[in-house]
Amino acid sequence: MSLFDTLMSRSHSKCELCASTTELSVYEIPPVTKVNENTALIVCGTCKTQIENPNNLDVNHWRALNESMWSEFAPVQVMAFRMLTLLNAESWARDLLEQLYLDESLLEWAKAGLPEEEEIDSSAPTLDSNGTRLLEGDSVTLIKDLEVKGGGFTAKRGTLVKNITLTNNPKHIEGRVNGIQIVLVANFLKKA
Ligand SMILES: [Zn+2]
User: Fold this and answer.
1) Beta sheet of 165-166, edge-to-edge order
2) Are 175 and 188 in contact (CB under 8 A)?
3) Among 40, 91, 126, 171, which residue has the least CB neighbours within 10 Å?
């Protein structure tokens, strides 16, 4: 049996992170040393794109981790840990992360794949692309087009986002674009 077939049978032909059945493929969890069913999982097209572009996460898509993090399979647990860590601006993600227990070796593996572990100084000010301080409730505009994965649209450069919410990460804010609450990178915004 190919690795794909083995994993498809384990996953019941569903994305192991969100249970979607579209565009399924094998995702080899980096850093890849040896590829087998213990280091890979089945992901859908949406999860794969988001995993590869972690700066542009569709927060709501990942709420499915709420269920998939309880998988008995290590690769699923490790990816759930990584995605929840990337989403830690969200209180629900922090809550789930607290409940997700990984043994020491899995934890080490899970952390190894995260973008360089930057210390998040939550007391630092949130600054826009010009270095202007952003405050809770401010309005901002996008300074570049932003593809909202899962939302199925692109928010154009210049889009106004009103009444932003600060997060505990000074590099991220939250706001509503086309009715969808998303995390935005402060660097790509300008205070309106
Ligand atoms: Zn998925």
Assistant:
1) 165-166, 172-177, 180-185
2) no
3) 91
Query: For 112-167, what is each residue's pLDDT tens digit?
Result: 877 665 566 778 899 999 999 999 999 999 999 888 766 788 889 999 999 999 98
Cα-to-centroid distance, 76 and ligand 1 (Å): 11
Amino acid code (one letter) for 132: T
Q: For residue 145, what are the CA distances in angstroms to 112, 121, 131, 152?
A: 31, 28, 20, 13
Is residue 48 within 8 A of residue 25, CB to CB? The reply is yes
Contact in structure between 134 and 140 (CB atoms under 8 Å):
yes
The pair of three-digit structure tokens given for residue 156, joined into one six-digit string: 């154009």
Distance in Å, CA 14 to ligand 1 centroid: 8
